[in-house]
Amino acid sequence: VVCLVAYHIFFMLFVWSYWKTIFTLPMNPSKEFHLSYSDKESLEREPRGESQQEVLRRAAKDLPIYTRTMSGAIRYCDRCHLVKPDRCHHCSVCDKCILKMDHHCPWVNNCVGFSNYKFFLLFLAYSLLYCLFIAATDLQYFIKFWTNGLPDTQAKFHIMFLFFAAAMFSVSLSSLFGYHCWLVSKNKSTLEVFRAPIFRHRTDKNGFSLGFSKNLRQVFGDEKKYWLLPVFSSLGDGCSFPTCLVNQDPEQASTPAGLNSTSKNENHLFPAKPLRDSQSHLLTDTPAWSETAAEAEKGKVGMSNPALTMENET
């Protein structure tokens, strides 16, 4: 009876999380990240280069954006006509920008991103538990099959197939689930593992990591009672994320946008631009930054670099 109840619980949670992963629509950037009609016209009139970057810098000056392209340009999507929020990428399959995009999963025929990443993790977890449960309960009959302890009927082949299928899926799911658990602990996405986020001053592969506890809460939320249920509880709006920007070497303050900085200083500052209220509380126990440093950061945002060119990322 206990095994039967456990079987039905795992199956229901598996189906529920799978359903939510498939049918939860990926979130798109809010309207404030879309260019206005006048900005679109200005962008089309200007030749590609610094003049276009100036238009994008004006459009993004009040947005909580800290990442750049490889050349240091504002991240812009020419298909969606918007300034890309941090960790947002354009999906070529869905043909739209997805907030905190992790990857496009063909198994669920949907993009895995900010809106359904928790559901995807739970789907992997309950799938793994479900396969392990089936393999464990079928093991005794599988042993009897090899010791000729089962009646000579077609059912014994079903038992053998069921055990091998559950065991193989358990191995593959355990590796995939373990990989995504590591991503959550480091506050990374699959895309950010292959291409680390580039901030105004340097590339920082751990730029969004706030420590294991805060990284976990950013995906699963503050209320632990919802962690194991396929209900949305992730923190934030998907457009802004707490991060730590590395101080620029004061001696290299004249370097445009700090792109060529080789400073090894590991002191961290808050971003100069405000975070959303739903995200900023994750940083409450971090030491506050000085007003002088904050003003210096604001001054660096408006610095222009004639060498910069606009890049459109995927």
Automatic annotation (TrEMBL):
Transmembrane stretches in the record are 6-25, 119-137, 157-179
Q: Which InterPro entries match?
A: Palmitoyltrfase_DHHC, PFA4/ZDH16/20/ERF2-like
- Molecular-function GO terms, alphabetical: protein-cysteine S-palmitoyltransferase activity
What Enzyme Commission number(s) does the record list for this chain?
A: 2.3.1.225
Class of the enzyme per the UniProt entry, highest EC level: transferase
- What does it catalyze? L-cysteinyl-[protein] + hexadecanoyl-CoA = S-hexadecanoyl-L-cysteinyl-[protein] + CoA
Keywords from the named record:
Acyltransferase, Membrane, Transferase, Transmembrane, Transmembrane helix
Record bears the keyword Transmembrane helix = yes
Supply the name of the protein: Palmitoyltransferase
Highest classification ranks of the organism: Eukaryota, Metazoa, Chordata, Craniata, Vertebrata
